Amino acid sequence: MSTSTLFDKSSIQGATRFAKTERSFELSIPTLVSGIDATGNEFKEYTELASISSQEAVFWLDSGVTIGSVLKLFLDVPKTVLLESDLKLEITGRVTFVKADQSSEKKQLISLRLEKKYKINSLHSKNI
Description:
Elements: H1 3-6, H2 11-19, E1 30-36, E2 42-52, E3 56-61, E4 70-77, E5 87-100, E6 108-122
Antiparallel strand pairs: 1-2, 1-4, 2-3, 3-6, 4-5, 5-6
């Protein structure tokens, strides 16, 4: 086998390698977080999203949560040039990372692994 064959990479392999990277967007969207805190009590807390991708959301919380906790996010998505009306996105996920930070306005940085299921409602819908 020649050395040129060993180092030859097909375009499919290259495309697959780059397709695995996920694009994350830094957005400051008002978000209501609900779930069960570290002491077992239900909580609801308003915060702002720091970033989001199709698989992960990152935000700050005052409520103490633990890795593995299931949280529900309610995102208020504003109207844009492409979006005719404001929307409410409801998505659930599991906490995968928690970082305490006493110097921040909120106590913990949370990383949430998002489920593939979600709900989108108009903010003017009666279901909200």
